[in-house]
């Protein structure tokens, strides 16, 4: 069975960190470190021809700038699953671990398995934004629970009002994210938000009004339905 992916003439292995990326080039066998910043990454991508394949691991989002630079330059890339790469490295009995070793291993992974490696494609921007909001909301809700527990603990004492203020702030942030989601995806609330903006309201004022409207809707839905009989 033949692969739809072209055979790369050389593979770049990138060990991605928060502030820097270690790059190994299988063509020359050299290793270098570049800042994990847009301009150096754009220069890296522009210096590659179409015969290269770039392989990096998923690193919690730190690889995003690299992948974006490669996409802008039209260079093929694969974002590898970390577990598969580690299993690949272990199959050679490699015990040492440095950034340079990892970059070289990623290049070898790309060389040997390029036919089965899906080429990375930019995902839908709106979906990425929604995912970021969902993750932020999850963390805010977890923090709100932790601070609420601290504020309600018997040992909180005089600190309770200060802890409660933090809880109120987190409540507001969670509500703001729910207004932003509603303003984008709920047709009724989206139209309401857009009317406010069209009438000259500032986005923050419009979002606050939207939050209030959303709370009213939620309260109405949570209110028990009236019973049909008399007491």
Account of the protein in words:
This protein has helices spanning 38-46, 64-73, 82-90, 99-113, 125-152, 160-185, 187-198, 203-222, and strands at 10-16, 20-25, 30-35, 52-57, 77-80. It has 231 residues and is α/β, with parallel strands linked by helices. The chain folds into 2 domains: 10-116, YqgF/RNase H-like domain (Nucleotidyltransferase, domain 5), CATH 3.30.420.140; 125-222. It has a 5-stranded mixed sheet. β4 (52-57), α2 (64-73) and β5 form a beta-alpha-beta unit. α1 (38-46) packs across α2 (64-73).
List keywords for this structure.
Nucleotidyltransferase, domain 5, 5-stranded mixed β-sheet, 56% helix, 5 strands, alpha/beta, 231 residues, 2 domains, 13% strand, single chain
What's this entry about, in short?
With 231 residues, the chain is α/β, with parallel strands linked by helices.
What is the molecular shape?
Answer: elongated
Give the helix/strand class: alpha/beta
Please estimate the helix content: 55-70%
- CATH level 4 superfamily of the largest domain: YqgF/RNase H-like domain
Number of domains: 2
Distance between the termini: 76 Å
Instruction: Report the portion of residues in β strands.
Output: 5-15%
